[in-house]
Give the backbone structure.
Amino acid sequence: MVYIRKSVWANGGGFDDPLLYWYAIGVSALQKRGLNDNTSWRFMAAIHGIDITSSDGSLWEQYGYYTPGEPLPSSAEQQLYWNQCQHGSWYFLPWHRGYVWSIEGLVRAEIVKAGGPKDWAMPYWNYSDQKNPQALLLPPAFSATNMPDGSPNPLYVAQRYGLGSTPIVLPASDVTLGALSATQFVGLKVGASAGLGGGKTGFSHNGIQTGELESKPHNIVHVDIGGQNDAGPGLMADPDIAGLDPIFWLHHANIDRLWDVWNKSSATHTNPTDPAWLNGPQDRKFVVPNVDGSAYYYAPKDMLDTTSPNLDYTYDEFVAATAVSSVLTSNVGEKTLSQSQEPELVGANASVVSVTGKMSSSSLALDAPTRALLSANPGQNIQAKLAQPARDRYFLNLENIKAAKDGFVIDVYMELPEGADHTGRMDLFCGSIGLFGVRKASQPDGAHGGAGVTEVMDVTNVVAGLAQNGALNKGEFSVNLVPRITLTDDAKVTVERISLYKQSA
Ligand SMILES: [Cu+2]
């Protein structure tokens, strides 16, 4: 049989829905197992990321998920399984597909043991569903502190600081699906979109080439739920602890569904055929536990069809929802471009930007030909010159973003007037960055030497609008980084360089 993953909101999102009641029962059983058991809740979270030896204190210990001296798996087993999650990489989607599949099997086995439904499958949280007025709300089964019988709710965690509101509601503009208009799974090397699925990398526990779906909604939703408070990041906001939150798996089931939606929405939306992708990284294998605790090794080529016997699941809905709001995401324009043209650097700022306080800005200078191209003479319709579909595309690159803490969202604008209220300036809005995994990617002893992450935004519409107004005649423009909460200096958020690339039509 093929298991069918259903929407968390199909029957109200609370414990009246057996799907969620039984999820809680299954999760509770896994939570009772020790960290030295590779089928336990905590071991599964550690496969994503764990740090219990850090000199600056372990979040696992701080939040009570690890007690020094408790039995651990052998170091061979730790090395085989732990700290595998693939981010900033073209392996992001296939690695997480195998990961969610694994815990789904473990949870289902416990549900069946307890007398629950044999066809249970992982629910998904479709926060982008505009037909559902509650779609943006954290489903009640996760925000209730108790089960219907009064016992503690295993799906509840205290460390969901989100944007400070209770219950958690995701901002609608954070879950738009511009990523699904990507024409390619793998993007170009530098400058332009990293594609739906991310840039070509090796094994990439915290890589640099974040794909469009990974960037949004994935990263931003992580931060919108986890957030940050004085004690540290919420569970969902940091990859070292994210898998401990039961909502993690419904978020990832939805990202996994969106990959399938993208594949099914056009004959040209194909997965990579490069053997380097299909066969997975050569330097380390992907591995998750089977239900009996034996090792299941996999590569992206095993993850192409969810209904194949090794995975054996599908979704009840492949509709992408009509959440692609053209107003809020400037990158939703029709990407009719073949993306065969190499993007060229046409502007950059001069020095590293520290993002602190309420807003940090930096000025970018355009090169002479681009300045001439984007200068408007009075009465000239420059937007016609930049008209779709055969038009140049502009990409803003925030290169090597580093941070000492995760859990922040930074909104990016161009040419915000000094001191002005930015809310509602959607004409100047470039996109948002969710700082998820940036802390790990910034550590100098990490796999990439602390290079941080790079985010790319399609800003064609913003650039066209500014050009039309004559705002680019001076040959430079400001980029404004606006953290949603005032950033303190200890977050140490920096952007190595901000650049503008042009991809010719
Ligand atoms: Cu994630």
Summary: The first strand starts at residue 3 and ends at 5.
